[in-house]
Amino acid sequence: MQGTFVATTAKKGRIAFFLGIAVGIVLSQLIGFQFGYVSSINTANCQPIRTNITVRSPYQPRKILLDCGANVASTVQLFRETYPGGKDFLIHSFELDHRLAPYFAPYSNHVLHCPIAVSEKDGNMTAYTEATWYPGRGLKNGVDMQWGGGSLFVSGREKMRKGTGGQRLFSYRHTVRTIDLSKWIQQNTKQEDYVIFKLDVEGAEFGILKKMLNDGTFKWVDK
Fold first, then answer.
1. Is residue 65 within 8 Å of 92, Cβ to Cβ?
2. How far is the C-alpha of 158 from the C-alpha of 219, rounded, in Å?
3. Which residues contact 179 (CB under 8 A, 6 or more apart)?
4. 33-34 and 90-94: which strand pairing?
5. What SS3 class is residue 142?
6. Which of 207, 218, 217 has its CA nearest to residue 183?
7. Domain residue spans of the chain
8. How many whole angstroms separate alpha carbon 178 and alpha carbon 175?
């Protein structure tokens, strides 16, 4: 009986030994090892890792002229021809009379916002503008008093005289979009930019300047 017990124990030991080897082989295949060395990796199908890294250059401040109440592009022409470095400025012109848009066609590095009126709020308003010009149309005592353009603010008498438009001959009326100029400046320029600001909008100046003061927008304006 004792000999049988020893033989049985030895047999069980050999079985356990071979089972251990079998388990080791299976595990080595699963994790990529083969008895003492690491299996080679086929790099033929490996793709390089691509990284989309964008290196941004430092912001370059711009030179900008805001021409509010642009009329017939007289400010654009004068600025380009006489202001030091005027040709290097990006000019934004705002004009409410769509009929004056052709005057701006010759100018490059220029953005025309027309028909758009600058204001202290976004919305729509009635624009009062002069009728189409013709020789003698605006003569008063032999002097041409019709210079183009218009206004959002007119007197009661000018409103009533639809045929003649009153003293300023504002007989052409149409609805235009208005923009909050203070907000527009903050959203479309940076404080690092060099911004020159011209405002000539026939009566809307007070509301615009008050809104700009309240918003702190003059931090964006240099001149």
1. yes
2. 37
3. 94, 113, 116, 117, 118, 119, 122
4. unpaired
5. coil
6. 217
7. 2-38, 63-220
8. 10
Reduced DSSP (H G I as helix, E B as strand, rest coil) percent helix, strand, coil of the chain, to 5: 35, 25, 40
* pLDDT at residue 37 in the model: 43
Q: Which one-letter DSSP state was computed for residue 145?
A: -
Return the residue matching tokens 């401040």. 61
Task: Tell me the pLDDT of the chain averaged across its residues.
Answer: 80
Question: pTM of the entire structure?
Answer: 0.69
- Model confidence pLDDT, tens digit, residues 70-91: 998 999 999 999 999 999 999 9
Contact between 115 and 96 under an 8 Å Cβ cutoff? The reply is: yes
* CA dist., res. 171 & res. 177, Å (int): 19
* Nearest partner of 146 among 128, 126, 159, 132, judged by Cα: 132
> Measured at the alpha carbon of residue 91, what is the angle toward residues 94 and 114, in degrees to the nearest 5?
25
Query: Which single residue is written with the structure tokens 């005592």?
Result: 141
Long-range pairs of 154-163 with CB within 8 A, sequence gap ≥ 24 = 154/128, 158/128, 159/128
